[in-house]
Amino acid sequence: MKVRRPKKTVIVREYQLDVGKIQVYENYMVSLFDEGATLTLERVYQIIGISEIHFRDKNFGYISLRKNSYAVDPTIYTYLRQLDNLKALAIVSVKEIDMHNFKIEKLFYKKPMKFFIEFDNAVTWVKRRVKAK
Fold first, then answer.
1. If I label 104, which of 4, 73, 84, 115 is the partner at 20 to 30 A Cα–Cα?
2. What is d(CA 5, CA 133) in angstroms, rounded to the nearest whole number?
3. What is the rounded distance in angstroms from the CA atom of residue 11 to the CA atom of residue 54?
4. For the segment 90-128, what is each residue's pLDDT rounded down to a tens digit?
């Protein structure tokens, strides 16, 4: 009997922004923003630019890894909604305030968006949503 090794997850590219970093994988992106940062429309345009470099002609997902506390302008979701190839948006946090904020953010996004406590569960969900579309 052959034992198959799990596929190793490889970071395709990592971008250091003034508010944190974006890691790009084969079919999804992960953001990790700095403590006290503010995610504004201008910064979202940087993220959209990165997505266009790597996912111009293919579907992808986005995972917001919220280890640090930072502010999100909820109007950014109006612009993210326009990305037809963005098929899944996951928020990962163990903080109760992030769960509360997620409920508000979801009202603005209106596309597949889910809250997770475990990062691995978010990755599994995002990959499944991207593959299904």
1. 84
2. 27
3. 12
4. 999 999 999 999 999 999 998 999 999 999 999 999 999
User: Among all chains, which residue has been given the structure tokens 């079919």?
Assistant: 27
Domain extent for 122 = 13-131
Residue 18 covered by a domain? yes
5 inside domain: no
38-39 vs 20-24, strand pairing mode: unpaired
Strands (E), 11-106: 13-17, 20-24, 28-33, 38-39, 60-65, 71-72, 86-92
Residue 2 belongs to a domain: no
Which CATH number belongs to the domain containing residue 121 in this structure? 3.30.750.24
Read off the DSSP letter of residue 56: T
Q: How far apart are alpha carbons 81 and 108 in whole angstroms?
A: 9
Question: Letter for the amino acid at 53?
Answer: I
Alpha-carbon distance of 8 to 26, in angstroms, equals 11
Q: What is the pTM of this model?
A: 0.89
> What length is written for the chain?
133
